[in-house]
């Protein structure tokens, strides 16, 4: 087991394979998302106990709206259920944030998200970021628009825009870049996830496991692989 001082500060997980998990069992795709939600709960709690500082999970992308309507409704129902049960995290000292364009959601969902964010803001355990209606390119556009407004208002000159300033204007601009991205299910791509923050991330792709079957042992396997990597950040 990787010692706590050698853990990555920020881990991102692309929770992939719910639909295929269900199909292999002859079940509706929405049952795969339900099983995936259970895996998420287990991993989030374990990661907090394990000592991770930041965990960002890809819940629902800006492209996922293209999926069948009943599947989207099932995912939104699971989101509502999660928001209703988030009180269970109070005793675990987890700070919860929501990353993405939240304006598209119904008022009750937005209000609950904001309530959870505010109530958990002073927790000192792991920060859990839920990327919902999130896209990496959309996030960069969001940051660019914020900076453009400052330039338009005369608060900022174009030549004063730096990489650090762009980072600060992302959805969670006060958090460190991601160190490790994990993707189960055998796919080898980022799928528009944390594309700015992952410039120097390490990647662990897992062929043999779909997200609903992802366990703490799989997380430990990825952490062990991360520890073996030589991160040079462009140097020698």
Can you offer a commentary on this structure?
With 236 residues, this protein is an alpha/beta fold. The protein has one domain (4-228): Undecaprenyl pyrophosphate synthetase, CATH 3.40.1180.10. It contains seven helices and six strands. It has helices at residues 18-24, 29-50, 69-85, 107-120, 136-152, 163-168, 216-228, and strands spanning 10-14, 54-61, 95-99, 127-134, 180-184, 202-206. Helix 4 (107-120) links the parallel strand 3 (95-99) and strand 4 (127-134). The longest helix is centred in the N-terminal third of the chain and has 22 residues, at 29-50. It is globular. It starts with 9 loop residues before the first strand and ends in an 8-residue tail after the last helix. The model has no long low-confidence stretch (mean pLDDT 92).
